[in-house]
């Protein structure tokens, strides 16, 4: 039996909720196709977030890991292409750490690409009427930190586990207090995530279709 590990973050930056966790926690003990889903909440803290992630990987030995985070201001579910080996925090994390121009992992490669079929995942969500996109940057905050740490860990594990990162927009209740901020209903994001999981479990080779950006 396959296991899928989903992670979401605790709230940060003054928010009382984080859509990544609000969506992910709906999947605890759910079965998708032939895979059992388990979930884990990560602290929005440099270093500790990667430690908690690695502990969950050790515990569950998943064949697929999808980490989720918030990208306030984005209009679509964003499937990330690449994580870079840089922590460069514009704001402090939840432990008041603010690393600047530091590597996620000292001596690690400059970047890791997601090992899930990112374009197929986006294409499947779009086909279901769910706004989605390939994103070329996971940023340089804790989300990128976790994505890089995840792919570094999977690259050094035996087996064929796949990993990736998905950014979610604000929830409507978050956007309601922000001027002109896009949002997406939790139910829509949940449906998109299920499609993303199913695609990542069943598609071996990614689609050769456009997913780039012009800026």
TrEMBL record:
The active site is at residues 80, 143, 167. GO terms for molecular function: pyroglutamyl-peptidase activity. One of its GO terms (biological process) is proteolysis. PROSITE patterns: PYRASE_CYS, PYRASE_GLU. InterPro entries: Peptidase_C15 (IPR000816), Peptidase_C15-like (IPR016125), Peptidase_C15-like_sf (IPR036440), PGP-I_bact-type (IPR029762), PGPEP1_Cys_AS (IPR033694), PGPEP1_Glu_AS (IPR033693). It is found in: Cytoplasm. GO terms for cellular component: cytosol. Pfam families: Peptidase_C15. Transmembrane segments: none annotated. The keyword Cytoplasm applies. Gene3D superfamilies: Peptidase C15, pyroglutamyl peptidase I-like (3.40.630.20). Homotetramer. Belongs to the peptidase C15 family. Removes 5-oxoproline from various penultimate amino acid residues except L-proline. This is Pyrrolidone-carboxylate peptidase. It comes from Sodalis ligni. The gene is pcp.
């Amino acid at each position: 039996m396959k296991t899928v590990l989903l992670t979401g973050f605790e709230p940060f930056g003054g928010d009382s909720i984080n859509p990544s966790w609000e969506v992910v926690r709906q999947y605890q003990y759910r079965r998708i196709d032939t895979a059992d889903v388990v979930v884990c909440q990560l602290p929005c803290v440099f270093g500790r977030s990667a430690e908690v992630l690695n502990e969950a990987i050790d515990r569950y030995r998943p064949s697929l890991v999808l980490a989720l985070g918030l990208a306030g201001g984005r209009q679509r579910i964003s499937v990330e292409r690449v994580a870079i080996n840089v922590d460069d925090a514009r704001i402090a994390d939840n432990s008041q750490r603010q690393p600047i121009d530091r590597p996620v992992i000292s001596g690690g490669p400059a970047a890791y690409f997601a090992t899930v079929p990112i374009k197929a995942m986006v294409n499947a969500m779009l086909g279901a009427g769910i706004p989605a996109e390939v994103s070329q940057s996971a940023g340089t905050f804790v989300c990128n930190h976790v994505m890089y740490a995840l792919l570094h860990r999977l690259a050094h594990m035996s087996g064929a586990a796949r990993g990736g990162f998905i950014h979610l927009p604000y929830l409507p209740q978050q956007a309601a207090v922000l001027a002109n901020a896009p949002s997406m209903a939790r139910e829509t994001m949940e449906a998109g995530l299920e499609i993303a999981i199913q695609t990542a479990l069943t598609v071996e080779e990614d689609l050769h279709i456009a997913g780039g950006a012009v800026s």
